[in-house]
Fold this protein.
Amino acid sequence: MAVAANLGFPRIGARRNLKWALEGYWKGAVDPEELQATAADLRRRHWLLQKSLGIEHIPSNDFSLYDHVLDAATLIGAVPKRFGWASETVGRAVYFAMARGAGDIAPLDMTKWFDTNYHCLTPEFEPGMKYRLASTKPIDQFREAASLGIHTRPVLLGPLSLARLGRCKAKLKPWTLIERWLPIYEEVLWRLAHAGADWVQIDEPALALDLPPEALSVLESACARLSAASDRIRVCLTTYFGGLAENLPAVLKMPVAAVHLDVVRAPEQLDVALNALPQGTMLSLGVVDGRNVWRTDLDGALTLLERAAARFGSDRLLIAPSCSLLHCPMDLDDEPSLDAELKGWMAFAHQKLKEVAILVRGINEGRSAVADSLAASRKALADRANSPRLHNPAVRRRLAMIDADMLRRRSPYPQRRELQRRRFSLPLLPTTTIGSFPQTLEVRKARAAFKHGHWSVDRYETFCRSEIERSVRFQEEIDLDVLVHGEIERADMVEYFGEQLDGFAFTHNGWVQSFGTRCVKPPVIFGDVSRPQPISVRWSQYAQSLTPRPMKAMLTGPITILQWSFVRNDQSRRDTAMQLALVVRDEATDLEAAGIGMIQIDEPGLREGLPLRHDAWSDYLTWAVDAFRLASSGVRDETQIHTHMCYAEFHDILESIAALDADVLSIEAARSNMELLGAFSQFRYPNDIGPGVYDIHSARVPEIEEIIGRLRKAMQTIPVEQLWVNPDCGLKTRGWPEVQASLRNMAEAAKSLRRTMGR
């Protein structure tokens, strides 16, 4: 009989329960026992829900207080020296210090979890680290579930992926560390077996990457040791986020009890698996999309599964989502305001597990047993395909009219630079911010009061204008050179624009975790995208009216909107991106017509959109760059286009970033202590650049000399005439006192350097 499995479940709670408990704990309003009680209650609810939906392989240890990659690092005791860890286990204080920093101690860097919208922490592996079992979390949570009568399949991030995600100090090679970690993994499996576990899930999403041959050899040795750690426990080697390509034959032969393949993103893997899977190895097939919100084509999924069952029997089949459901909202039934037609096309985590259960029943009992479900799936797919809401002929016509002239500025950058310098007369090392200012409790209350009808439009907009003026006056006071209006009217940089575009839908409780306690509600792009009217113009125009200094308008770029949304899957992502680019282009030209001379088109999502395989990069980068250039090239030469990127390693796409031809690029750099700038020593970036000079994800206020030191470090790589001075990222999640102190120091650091250089 085929078995229903799940790889992971959303952990924040239906009402972001974990977020509120954690933030209360950090503020001292929630005690440790209350935090633990909230976490335990969420785990209990989620385990019981999965059991009620018919899932047999229910994951445990997929829950994390902050980040599962951080959990894996603390499991093996990979705690950098600066955190002063000296005890046997990693306690809560050290754990959160690694995540968020503590005083002057910088936190771990942050990066993308492969090509998803989730940010994970970057483990640091230092020479001399004494690796040991420093956390019993996987065993504790397995026992916790067992005490509730729920038998789970513990999840561990595999050693290969942990090594690939981490950063090695000095000349350490990541693959050489795995041998030192394996005794810890073996001990964990041995303890789990003695606690009653019979399966363990070893997640190795790194297998979807380009890997050197030695990596597969190391993994094969690791799998052999882990499979032999206890004769009571079986290992399911779990891959996802894409096809394994040349890695697949070796993975199928790994000495494990089961291999999981993502056949949503890479259905071609099934044929290889059917021909190469060794006798006795079970096959776990991810046939329900764990990363998007659309209903599964149950007929199509069942056809794939029937092929596998016909080849080697249903007893060797595990049926699951393609990856952890961490990337999906919790429950579509919790969306009363979403219209019925759209809901009929969608499925959240809860519904996706129901689909898994239906497919298992279809395999075990035959199609007739699930005939009603198959018919409902068929109808939903047909209704969506035939809905007039998906297609806008005017948008399609405009898309077909895009030509090469629309993809480039009127003059090369050197000519634009001279026009812009004459227009703005900025000093050396001009200072600015990335865009947003603190979204205080008062701001959030005002937004909620307006959204729920308790405030009138006039009252809310009066409040926003007051907050904008406050931001402008503060920036003038500390003598920033280029100001921003603070984005007070925006809850989220993607949601704000999507709410005012056709072709988008929005949820009420569709929260997903971005990192730590940062949760977002991604818009749903279901149809052709168009802009009924200008979106941000009046707010930027108002802000500019308050000051003679340049006011930078803020737009979200087409690739970031694409990446940070749940995107329609009935057309190419390129076509959707170009529709979005036309919308941003229109907004930019309207801003210019309203007198705004600087426009920032944020593209933090550009790097994360890269396919996992290098051989697919060229195609993606071509249309992604085209989309940005389409969005930004409708303005005159004297209008300065900025863009911002963060949470990414840029060294391998610098040519494409330069091809964007933004007049000013700002990037996250302080969190990595300017290490990212090393890439610019090999590539001469042609335009202006603002490397972040302080980390906005930590509450600490950087000292003036610290910022000066970072700027001097940047000047070793980038000519001072090209340098701008700015924070790493937007400031919406910070409080005003720390923002004010930090920006004062930033502005003074720039002035101090100017004086030193006599400029």
